Amino acid sequence: MGVMSAQKTISMEELVSLCKRRGFIYPASEIYGGLNGFWDYGPLGTELKNNIRDAWWHDMVRCPPMGPDGEPVSIVGLDSSIIQNPRVWEASGHVGGFNDPMVDCRESKSRYRADHLLCLGVNGDTQGQIYTFVENDDESLASARKKLEKYIKRKLEDEEVDVSPFTSLSADEIAITVGPDVKTVGTLTEPRQFNLMFKTFVGALQDEESAAYLRPETAQGIFLNFNNVVDTMRVKVPFGIAQVGKAFRNEVTPRNFIFRSREFEQMEIEWFCHESDSAKWFEFWCETRRKWWESMGLTSDNVQMRSHDSDELAHYAKEGCGTFDVEYRFPFTSPGYGELEGVAHRGNFDLTRHQEFSKKKLEYFDQQRNERYAPHVIEPSAGLSRGTLAILCEAFTPDEERASKVFMKFQPRVAPIKAAVFPLVNKDGMPEVASKLHQELRKRWPVQFDAKQSIGKRYARMDEAGCPWCFTIDSDSLNDQSVTIRDRDTLSQDRIGIDKVEGWLAERLV
RNA sequence: GCGGGUGUAGCUCAAUGGUAGAGCGUCAGCCUUCCAAGCUGAAUGUUGACGGUUCGAGUCCGUUCACCCGCUCCA
């Protein structure tokens, strides 16, 4: 539940219900009780998501905007594989930093790296309580020692104190252990492996030698193919490589419908440029990407740019440059905002790392500058799944006045169904004329034909599906070859000739 | 991961421990000349799953799964 803006209030429950009822999004594996963090796109959701993806591809790859100096920008596409050599993830920093066993404290809600926790006990005593502290943290050590001394009711000499690694404790011992930030015993969990990457095996033999990962981001596939693209596509820095595809993360807490799911889709551009131009391009891409989301129908009221604080910067983020997020005010974040896209300045971190790990040169020779260098990278990384959700939220328009009580106000460009053709009544030659028009229109767009039930129900159904226009054949149509255009948003009706319908639609659908 | 809540037809929801229902939607037929109209009829459920208590469980208990809310987390 949440307030979207001053104008409208929408509840996620209603949206989720409509998404299922109208075939946008279903819970994944539903007949088996579902699976936490996974969702399936139904027929309309698939069309919607594809339309957003195609719009992005068109607007970024085929017809990108002019660059900051008035020159056209150049972007080429790519579709790299989801499973890559596991060394990729060592180079990218995804393995290692996030691969450690973690210990949670049920009491203080803190989370510790198991190998950073040490235990304090009395020498030779294997019965008493064990007190943990954080490695290299004098305060934490002092606190543990104080608690231990209080427990045994006397001061300890330094040589009486026994320090051992937390990772050597048995489950029984953990049960009599006191966490660093609490006074009660047994609040720590056993060490658990947290790895946000999905592990799998390549080949039929499932040993560690064949372990691999499903990509947690599409970006790395672009860096891996940097040389290939430079060598084969006649691109010159600055240029971009774009990719749309699935990525997988074992999120700790999947939540909020498809906002944080474990399988999701990204639309990423890696923009390669000279370091000295990177600030200019960073600004350009922040602005370009914000405008693009607004062009997709997200109102500027609900979209904002936010700079990352220094403590939340990713490991790859260039120092001093940071990351800007394009954020959308989702119902479940309102009045706050949730991330839709991150525009990051990655410096030349990735190319340099892959060069180091692969021992292959990943450099570019800039003839104009007469300089060889690893280009710096600006990365506009957008969530396609999140964008789809934002557009669903934005389109959801309650309207007590109309029969459906709600309609989906999609921009025609992303609407899953572009138009519907109805005979006003299912007789007197009307179905035949309507069907003929439908047959023609569907060659160019997703257009539906419906002759069932009353005209009001058909309009209502199309309102919930977010179909912008309905063309209705009535008895007049049979005489004067005209049809009624019913507009979803205004409910207005206009007449035009049947032979004009295709052109009329073409003017409104790019 | 923690705490709280909710799971019954496609959707929204009823049902004292005692025969699983309604509205809407869907489908079929009739009807219908512009906004879920009307009439007739139909389909649809291992009551999220598994186990227990009971003569008998949608209802009580346990476990588990999923979703929602709040923390936590989020390269």
Condensed summary:
This protein is α+β, with helices and mostly antiparallel strands and 510 residues long.
Can you put this structure into words, describing what you see?
The protein has 510 residues and is α+β, with helices and mostly antiparallel strands. The chain folds into 3 domains: 2-89 and 212-394, 2-Layer Sandwich (BirA Bifunctional Protein, domain 2), CATH 3.30.930.10; 101-193, no CATH class; 407-508, Anticodon-binding domain (Rossmann fold, 3-Layer(aba) Sandwich), CATH 3.40.50. Helix content is 28%, strand content 26%. It is built from 14 helices and 29 strands. Helix 2 packs across helix 10 (384-395). The longest helix is centred in the N-terminal third of the chain and has 20 residues, at 43-62. Mean pLDDT is 89; it is low at 1-7. The structure holds one RNA strand of 75 nucleotides.
